[in-house]
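A reminder before we start the practical. When you read a complex entry, don't treat the lines as separate problems. The point of joint prediction is that each chain is placed relative to the others, so the output describes one connected object in space. Small molecules and nucleic acid strands, if listed, are placed in the same frame. In the example below there are two entries. Take a minute to note the order of the lines before looking further.
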Amino acid sequence: MSKELGNFSVRTYSLLTKLYPREFNSTLRADSVATFAEEHARLRSQGRYASFAYSSRNIVALIGEIIRMRLITPPGGRRRNTNGTHQPYESILRELRMALRSLLRTPGFSATAIATMATVIGATTAVFSVVNGILLQPLPYADSEQLVRVYQQNSPTNRFGVSTVDFQGIQQYTNSLSSVAGFAGGEMTLAGPDRSERVPVGRVTPDWFNVLGVTLTHGRAFQSADGNPGNEPVVIVTDAFASRRFESASQAIGETLTLNGMPHTLVGVLPTGMEAMAGFKADVWPVLQLNEPQRRGPFFIRAIGRMRNEVSLEDLTNDLRSVSQLIFPQWSDTFSDENATLVPFALRDNMVGSVKGAMGMLLGAVGFLMLIAIANVGNLFMARSTVRQRETAIRASLGASRTQLLYQFFVESLLLTAIAGGIGIVLASIGLDALVAIGPAIPRLDEVGLDLTALAFAAGIAGASGLFFGVTPFVTGRTESPSQTLRTAGRTNSDTGAAKAMRSALVSIEFALALPLLATAALLFGSLARLHKIPLGFDDDNTVVATLSLPAVDYPDSDARIAFWETALEALQTVPNFSNATFATGLPPDGGSMSNNFDLLEAPVAVGQSEHVAPWITVGPSFFETMEIPLLQGRLPDQADANGPPVAMVSRAWANRYFPDREVLGAQFYEGGCRSCDPTTVIGVVGNVSFMGIGSDDLTAVYRPHSQFAPSRAYVIVRAHAGLPSAAVVREKIFELDRGLALSRFDTFEKRLSDSVARPRYWATLVAVFAVVGVVLAGIGVFGVLSYFVTRQMKEIGVRVALGADPRSVRNLVVRRGMVQALRGLAVGVAVALGLGKSIDSLLYEVTANDPATLGVVSITLALIALAACYVPAHRATQVDPTAVLSQE
Amino acid sequence: MKMATFKLLAALSNGSYSAAEIRERISDLAGGGRQPSLASFYRILNSAVSEGWIEVADSKQASESGRPAHSYEVTAAGVTEMRREANLLRELTNTALGELSPTSTDE
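Here is the predicted structure of the whole assembly.
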């Protein structure tokens, strides 16, 4: 195999040297090939990689030199026009016209090849643009590589935000950061002239825009005094928001926005198009005023910082560790987890890390598809060159040199792929819009576009495939004289052994690549199906949910909030079709917005160690009835608990994890690290529901009654007797109670469940599309090669039939030939799939990439497709009339 | 004359060599740097042969692969051209060093 590849390299190099201009010294040309061959042979003894690197480098350099020389001196030597100046492009234009005429003479071939290549160039470029825009391009901020996100981390898998104490500690003690800022996202109620609306907000500390290097187009950025509690709250908005609400950005400055009942002065407007920063999207950016901390938590701030010049991530890591050690003893009475340390992550990696694996898989899948298409079209070019042997021989006998013929073939193939590349770029543009439009929430997806890098990528694919299509027929073609060719071409099987081998190899390659592609699609869809089959633990029918926040100004204390929630639920339950209404601060499957740490009185963690953590949901009355989550043990909270000691319900998974062989009812724990608080007592166990995403292993949850901790923000959940509850009615009922409140993000559980698997569905769909196209191309590949084989072997088949061969043996002969190629490819494909399996394991659920059942089914499917593709030409072979075929001879 | 052509002539200044040997000598002259690609080497060689500065010497010796090993040598015109270029470079070098020397003294 290695020797064959070596010969292929030398032949390719030799062939390319024929494209040197005519005046290039022929002795030097021959000597260059001989030197290449000798050097290649010497390096082959050192290993395949050395010889491959040598060939690649020198072949690419040779192509570059040829283009350079050809542009200066076109074939036929230098010519001068009537002005006596050189016209270096005249010859190229002539060749292009000839190539275009030649392609137009075979419209079927040209259209098929262009359509195939345009489709894959379009798909590959679109996917490359996505990967480039998300993973490779720097963030759109000055010196963005200096930006970091800082977390608290107490185990390799558990990290969370920072607290006011941490944030101020970083500001005060860190030398490695030139600036640091904090973000706390969410929604706020924006009072309007008629009705209030819920708007996404990014509450940020004054240095936020400075850290990111964002300059405002109107007004001013925040000043440090803006962040002091008690000062007038100020806000900065996006250009789109300012235009929508105040007609123009300049008119917006100085206006007042009432957010959660609190007036904020609008002091600045962001540049046009900047609607997300550091991965956080919001219309309104109020200043975040941090109160003097009373304890170490809560850890609600998402901190970003800018490293000083010359500071590495490692330096910063060490620096932050020192800060953690400085802070810990000062607040150890309210947070005893000594393992928790401030840790920095490069901002870009942090933003896109979750999609890195999927992006790699997508790029690999589309790359496989491209190789399948190149193999397919390469086969078409080889068949076409054989068919054109007679034409080529006539041109040769009329004086065209082999170089000129080769040059013409190159120009044709490059022209074809250039046209395909042009169409492909248009398709990529359309495809990219579609990828972004149907895409789920993927970081930086809105930054993706077709840029110069993507265009260069498309041009590179078109150029490389054009060279391959041009060189392959010549490398594997015949070397006989034109007169011999004229005598035999078109009448016998005039393929060389190399051509036959190459053609078969290309078909095998197509199947070898199609198998892992199809297997990946099957595995991803299998995972998706398994995710859909996971029991939810609650009834999701006839239910809508929406979010609602109570402004602190109007609902300053627990009593006011409890009163509102209970009145609101009563109002909703009076609606005839509504069977039940409740609220909760978290929702399945992935709306566990708050987690809390806790320490069991019976089995406290060792001093300095990390406490347990679980989703912490405050639930309204009749939450479990509305959601139809079963009570398994104990009781639900009642009115008596309102003024009693803290109580909680726990999920079965929580009970099983922390009390596997003990009575869980009556168990007590301290929550949030507070040892001086009254411990919470477990009064009931309910069924498992996931708050950490569908498929999550962690089904633990702690439920607190609203009567003991009245939330200011919660999901309102309404169930109807039949059909979906009307969102308008729900909205109206709340509006009747308080005209300043606004419900937002109305959803059904069906939609929420669908959204929670949007990413896996997106990856699976894209890979499936590529796989289907790949499989179709592979099928067409084996069909095309066998059809060609039958046409070329018509005489031999005729002789066999004349000598008594029955149709079955003729059919078997053809089918065997096709199936050998396909099965050889499938065997390699299984090895490739097994080899690449690990790279997609993280994207699968309850199945491994090397799942034998999936690989088996996919292999059998592809073998059946190959068999079907073989059958048509095989059947045609059985219809050969020996008399007619032999009389043509 | 381009520096690459000058290096090529310099590599052949004391005898005739095969292409592989010339490439190694050029690499040595450049302080052990990476060899030029075969294609650019032969393009420069071709232009030097066209100018009449280098000629293909007959070789009766076969290479390891059995093919007749071509070797190359500088012609009289090539030697003249190389001398002219070397003198030019020397003058340029002296001028540059002369310009630099006052600064060196100050230091």
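Discuss with your neighbour: The longest strand of chain A covers residues 177-190. What might explain this?
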